[in-house]
Amino acid sequence: MDNFGFLKVAAAVPHVRVADCDYNAERMAAMAEEAARRGVEIVAFPELAVTAYTCGDLLLQQTLLDAADEALERLVRATRKLPLTLIAGAPLRHGSTLYNCAVVFTQGRVLGVVPKTYIPDYTEFYENRWFASGAGISDEHIAVAEQSADFGADLTFGINGTEFGVEICEDLWTAIPPSSHLALNGAKVIFNLSASPESVGKHAYLRQLVAQQSARTIAAYVYCSAGFGESTTDLVFAGNGIVAENGTILREAERFSPEEQLVVADVDLERLAFERRRNTSFRMNEGAAENTVIEMEIPEGLRGVVLDRDIDPMPFVPQGRSAPQRTLRGDFPDTVARTGAADGPHPRRKSRRRYLGRAGFDPRPARDGPHVRFPENGPRGDHRHHDAGLRHHRPHLQQRAGTDARTGRHDPRNPDPRRLHAAFSRI
Fold first, then answer.
1. What is the DSSP letter of 224?
2. Which residues in the chain show pLDDT less than 50?
3. 98, 72, 74: which is closest to 87 by C-alpha?
4. DSSP 363-397
5. CA angle 358, 364, 368 (to 5 degrees)
6. How many CB atoms lie within 10 A of CB 125?
7. Helix or strand or coil: residue 298?
C-alpha cells in the first residue's frame, strides 16, 4: 500500500455454469487477469463460485467435490504470477464434514480458508442440508488445492501491511456479524462472498445493511454476490457488487446484467485508521479477542493513474436526497413538490383562514388595520355568546393578525397582536 494510503479492491461477478467447475475456474482466472491490469490488489468472487451456488444435492456428491478441489488447484496455479490476492468460494471437506468456504490465495499459495459461520435454514434457504457451521473452529488446518492451509472463522490476513477479513453471505445478516469481531481485531477491509437471491424490497435493505456494517466497523466493506448463470429454478440472482467505506457506498454493479462485471474502487485506509483513532468507543473493545493473522508480502502490481473513487468538490454541501430530508425551511421536499409551498404559505394555514372567516373575520389581506370586521352599531345578538366566540377564537385571531406560530415573528403590515388583545378586552 503506497498509493497515498489508498487500496484498490474489486468485487468480481463472473459467468458460471452449475456444477461445471472447469468453466467457472477459467472465467475466474480471466477476471483475475483483468483485475490485475486495472491495478486491483485484492479481488473477491461470489459464494461457491467454483461450483455455482445452486447445485442443490449435487453438493453431496464426491464427484463434484473432487472436481471443485481440482479446479481450485488449477486456478491457484494459473494466477500465481499475478500481483494480487484472490478470494474464491468453494465447498471443502474437512474430515467427514462439508463446509461452505472462502479460500484466500496469492502467488500460487493458499494462505487460509474461512468457513461460513451462520448456515441459513429458513424460507428459501436450506444450506443446513449440506453444510456445517464453522463457528468455534480455530487453529486447524485443511487440505485444499494440494496444499495445507490454516482453517478457522477467526482468520485475518495481512498483505503488504493491509489487514483484511472475510465473512460469507448470511454472516452479514445476523445480530452480531463475524466482521464486527474481525474489525476489532484489526481488519480494515471486510470481504463478503455471497449468493443472495432477490425478492421484493430486499435490495434497498441490502444496500443499507452493507453501508451500515461498514460504518459500525469503521472499515471498507466489499460485497460480491452471484449473478448470471445460476439456476433460476427457485431463485433469481442480480449479481450485486457493492463497495462501501465507513457508511458510504463508493461503487455498485449493474443489477441483472447478463455481462460479467468487475466493480473496482479505491478505499482510503489512512482515513479509516484516523477515524478509528478518533473514535474512543471503538478503541474500548479493540483487540478484545484473540485471532490468527496470516501475513505475506507480495510484489506490487501496476499502479493505475486513475483513482476509482469519486471526489466531492463541495464536501460540506449536501448532495442528493436518497431518503426524505428536511430542507432549511423544515419542509419535506415531497410536500413542497405537491403543494408548491416552498416560497408560499403553509398549506395548513389555508384551512385556518377559512375557519376564522366563518367566525366573523375577514380572510382577505388587510392594508390599514387588523383583520377584524366590527359591526357599525355594535355587536349583534346575545352579548355573552358573542364574547364567548371572541374568547374562543382569540389565539387564531392573533395569528391571523400577523403572528407566525412557528417563528413568533410579526408581519410589519399589521398591528401588534397585543394591541388587538386590548381592543377585544373592551368589547
1. E
2. 1, 323-361, 366, 369-372, 374, 381-408
3. 72
4. -SPPSSS-S----TTS--S-HHHHHHHHHHHHHHH
5. 120
6. 16
7. coil
The number of CA neighbours under 13 Å toward the Cβ of 316 is 0
What are the residues whose beta carbons fall under 8 Å from the beta carbon of 251, sequence distance 6 or more?
Answer: 241, 242, 243, 263, 264, 265, 308
Q: What is the pLDDT of residue 423?
A: 55
pLDDT per position as a tens digit, 146-180: 999 999 999 999 998 899 999 999 999 999 999 99
Helix (H) or strand (E) holding 24: helix 21-37
Residues labelled catalytic? 47, 116, 169
Q: What is the DSSP letter of 410?
A: B
Q: What angle do CA 226, 229, 231 make, to 5 degrees?
A: 90
CA 146 – CA 410 distance, rounded (Å): 83
Instruction: Tell me how far apart the alpha carbons of residues 264 and 251 are, in angstroms, rounded to a whole number.
Output: 7
10 Å Cβ neighbour count for 215? 16
Distance (Å, whole) CA 355 – CA 292: 73
Q: Which residues contact 185 (CB under 8 A, 6 or more apart)?
A: 154, 156, 165, 287, 289, 291, 293
Please, is 77 exposed, middle or buried when counting C-beta atoms within 10 Å of its C-beta (0-12, 13-18, 19+)?
A: middle
Query: How many whole angstroms separate alpha carbon 10 and alpha carbon 123?
Result: 30
Q: What is the pLDDT of residue 332?
A: 44
Q: DSSP assignment of 53-70, as one string?
A: GGGGGGGG-HHHHHHHHH
**Tens digits of residue pLDDT in 306-353:** 889 998 888 888 876 554 444 434 444 444 444 444 444 444 444 444
